[in-house]
Design a protein that fits this description.
Number of strands: 11
Number of helices: 6
Order of helices and strands: HEEHHHEHEEEEEEEEH
Strand content: 25-35%
Helix content: 10-25%
Radius of gyration: 19 Å
Length: about 250
């Protein structure tokens, strides 16, 4: 709605937390972990608040919340839910990156591409291998695609949400002539590496992960990031996610 196009960040949070009262903010409160911000939230449902804030930020102009505030919400969610077992069926499909925190140890390419639209979709690649496909849209037709093969954790391990990961392939893709069925033109990129990705929160609409280099990533289902989904009172809904990954 035009009347709220310039809604500031604190108002977005107020709307997000509307159904999750009481909300108190105490900068002096103790954070539950060293990675958390000094800003402390007491929320009945911090996951709902974070998801609603990110939905509204996607369709509204205005100043975003401070990264420390978002990270504090992430910490509240982790504290409330505890270890999250990996659920492949629930995580399968398309995810759009909505917020991330890069550590000092993050790869230079990750830092450079951070402001651009990104997806990380759990799917089968063209060879039938299970991967999460990282997609960074450089322009409308040009994108970086990196397929990361993952290994599910053992059932009795101490980190039930941690996936072993290794980059399977990376390409710079030019997508032209799709209306005529042309395949993307790909240029291989020399990206190599292995590590892990830990799923610390997972619902049907939002996932939060931490990487082995200290990064934090919050993804939402793409269909939640439309004006229709963000403002259901106007006549929309969140829909259901597709089981086929974005290609």
């Amino acid at each position: 709605p035009a009347a709220v196009e310039m809604l500031p960040a604190f108002a977005c949070l107020a709307i997000a937390a509307r159904a999750a009262r009481p909300l108190t903010i105490s900068p002096q409160a103790r954070a539950p972990a060293a990675a958390c911000s000094a800003t402390d939230f007491t929320l009945t449902d911090p996951a709902f608040a974070l998801r609603r804030y990110l939905q509204l930020r996607a369709v509204l102009a205005g100043a975003p919340m401070a990264d420390s505030t978002v990270e504090s919400l992430v910490c509240r969610i982790e504290e409330a839910t505890g270890p999250t077992p990996f659920d492949e069926r629930k995580i399968w499909g398309d995810w759009q990156l909505c917020w991330q925190k890069n550590s000092r140890e993050a790869a230079a390419s990750q830092k450079a591409l951070a402001p651009l639209p990104q997806y990380s979709n759990f799917m089968l690649d063209e060879s039938g291998v299970k991967v999460f496909r990282n997609i960074v849209a450089l322009t409308k037709r040009l994108r970086v695609v990196a397929d990361v093969e993952y290994t599910a954790p053992e059932a009795d391990c101490g980190t039930p949400g941690r996936l072993g990961s290794v980059i399977r392939r990376a390409t710079l893709e030019l997508r032209v002539g799709q209306r005529w069925g042309w395949r993307p033109i790909g240029l291989p990129l020399p990206l190599r590496g292995e590590g892990w990705l830990e799923v610390v929160y997972l619902s049907d609409g939002m996932r939060i992960t931490r990487g082995n280099r200290g990064g934090v990533f919050v993804h939402l289902r793409p269909e939640l990031l439309t004006e229709r989904a963000a403002w259901p009172a106007v006549g929309g809904g969140s829909g259901t996610h597709r089981m086929a990954g974005r290609r």
